[in-house]
Specification:
Blueprint lengths: L1 E10 L2 H11 L15 E2 L9 H9 L11 E8 L1 H4 L12 H19 L3 E7 L6 E6 L10 H5 L2 H15 L4 E2 L12 H10 L6 H4 L9 H64 L3 H7 L11 H9 L3 H31 L15 H12 L3 H9 L3 E3 L5 E6 L5 E7 L9 E2 L11 E4 L9 E5 L2 H11 L6 E5 L9 H4 L4 E4 L3 H10 L4 E2 H7 L4
Parallel strand pairs: 1-6, 12-13, 12-14, 14-15
Antiparallel strand pairs: 1-3, 2-4, 3-5, 4-5, 7-8, 8-9, 9-10, 11-13
Helix pairs in contact: 4-6, 11-12
Length: 526
């Protein structure tokens, strides 16, 4: 009787995910795998991205805990009796029709159970028994990263095993005993056991006596069958020990290089400390040079020089250079600057005060001159992204991608050149005017449309309504404005509604960015 095999491994870091892919794609040495046999992908790979990027794209821009499960690796198989019913002990062999039926059933189960949350699945034929490795991004029904909702309880794990067994039941493969305490031996533990327990063959005991009427060919085959299990373990021992010896030699070489590097770094650190001690200009040294016996009420050499000599900043800098050289002068000035920075609290941006009475004028202007719907303008006002200031300007709020306000753009209704001005105190490089529309409010963003101004963003958004999927409109107010490139690289589509020169510069950072006009010609945009 053949049994189902369904195991999962939770992956919580990007480095662990990359290592897992390196193993399953055989980019690293796998001792128990046959390098002559090529494994097969059983899901379509349209984007040709590595596993880390596939998972990042599926997670999107949502926030998640530092210890969240990023992906779940599934190992799906059946016991050897299914794949080779007449020779279960002959590792590496399988019945092709049985294998095809198994793969079709597993792929159908993955699709029905998890859909597009499965980002990669491959069939391994290079080991003892065929099996499938599938990678699942554990998104719950809201699209949030939530492995606990899928596999967080014993009941859910029972349901997983039951579901997989039901999908393979028509092939004669059955579920193991529910609640069994049986465990499987991990590859590392297997090799540890192989290395520890050396196999010795007692030929007198193991080699059988020839039987009556038994030919030499039949006798030879019978001896091979009897010795093959022990010989297979011995071969594994030899391969593993060769690998370990090679690894040990590499580690010794690495240790030698590391020791040389450590010595070099310690020498460099000692030199840096010596130089720093020479450059560190103390307050007492400066006070002595000024003819003082002490320097009360001063926190740094620069302010002490300015007070005693009754001079300005520039003269104090020159005085320090003449007495202590450029190195001492630079240390004194940097120490003064650091002291000022630490004593001064960080400035928090405060946007201009809204004036509700003037919003009607802003609303009328944007509706009549730029054909932006009043309903959209009202929604932006309610969200605090657009309002009128006390002097009648339209105020567009800039935010970072986490939603924190970083600045504001002012637009005068009497502005004939359609130019925006930046409100005082804005942190221009820290945020953008942006908003997301379409699809579910909690859905993952699939497309970003980059544009030149807040008004352009609203006009393009209006033109492309309705939106069938979540779309981000983000304004870049100047040619060299910083891009949230790390986030944009995770999106399937980045569309640029800007002049050709700007599109070319963006493509240097985002090679897959598409011209808005060409994108519209290729397909129905939404």
């Amino acid at each position: 009787m053949a049994f189902t095999i369904c195991r999962i491994q939770k992956i919580k870091s990007w480095s662990a995910l990359a290592r897992s892919e390196a193993h399953t794609t055989r980019k690293v040495n796998t001792p128990n795998a046959n390098p002559q046999i090529k494994n097969l992908e059983v899901t379509e790979d349209c984007d040709n991205l590595d596993l880390v990027m596939k998972v990042r794209n599926k997670i999107g821009s949502q926030k998640y805990r530092s210890d969240a499960v990023l992906a779940v690796e599934m190992l799906l198989s059946a016991s050897a009796e299914y794949f080779r019913p007449n020779a279960a002990h002959e590792g590496g062999n399988y019945d092709k029709q049985r294998l095809n039926d198994f793969v079709n059933a597993v792929v159908k189960w993955l699709d029905n159970s998890w859909g597009d949350r499965i980002v990669k699945a491959s069939l391994h034929l290079d080991e003892m028994t065929p099996h499938i490795h599938a990678y699942l991004v554990p998104l719950d029904e809201r699209g949030k990263l939530n492995c606990k909702a899928l596999f967080g309880t014993r009941v859910k794990m029972y349901q997983l095993q039951d579901s997989f067994a039901n999908a393979l039941g028509h092939l004669g493969i059955v579920r193991g005993v529910k609640g069994s305490v049986a465990t499987h031996t991990k590859v590392k533990k297997y090799y540890a056991a192989v290395n520890q327990d050396s196999q010795l063959i007692d030929l007198e005991r193991c080699i059988p006596q020839p039987q009556a009427q038994e030919g030499s060919v039949a006798y030879r085959q019978r001896v091979i069958e009897l010795l093959n299990p022990q010989l297979e373990v011995i071969n594994q021992q030899l391969r593993e020990r060769d690998r370990q010896n090679q690894k040990l030699a590499e580690l010794k070489q690495t240790a030698s290089v590391s020791e040389q590097l450590r010595y070099s770094l310690e020498k460099e650190l000692h030199s840096l400390r010596a130089n720093y001690s020479q450059q560190n200009l103390s307050l007492s040294e400066v006070a002595y040079e000024l003819g003082l016996n002490h320097s009360k009420h001063e926190h740094n050499p620069l302010s002490l020089v300015m007070r005693v000599n009754k001079c300005n900043f520039d003269d104090a800098v020159v005085w320090l250079r003449d007495r202590f050289g450029e190195t001492g002068m630079i240390h004194a000035v940097s120490k003064s600057a650091l002291s000022i920075a630490r004593q001064t609290p960080e400035c928090i941006f405060v946007p201009p005060k809204p004036q509700a009475q003037h919003f009607g004028e802003v609303e009328h202007y944007l509706n009549q001159k730029h054909s932006i719907p009043q309903k959209l303008l009202k929604t932006l006002q309610e969200r605090g992204l657009l309002y009128a200031s006390t002097d009648g300007n339209a105020v567009f709020i800039a935010r970072n991608l986490d939603g924190r306000t970083t600045g504001a753009y002012l637009y005068s209704l009497n502005n004939s050149e359609n130019n925006f001005s930046l409100y005082s105190g804005s942190r221009r490089s820290s945020g953008w005017f942006h908003l997301s529309v379409g699809g579910s409010n909690r859905g993952l963003i699939e497309t970003a449309v980059l544009n030149s101004s807040p008004i352009d963003a609203l006009k393009i958004m209006t033109k492309n309504a309705p939106h069938n999927h979540r779309t981000l409109y983000l304004t870049l107010d100047r040619e060299n404005a910083p891009l949230p490139s790390k986030f944009l690289k995770t999106l399937p589509n980045v569309v640029v509604a800007m002049p050709e020169k700007r599109i070319m510069s963006i493509r240097k950072i985002l090679p897959n960015a598409i011209d808005f006009s060409k994108y519209n010609q290729q397909q129905a945009f939404y």
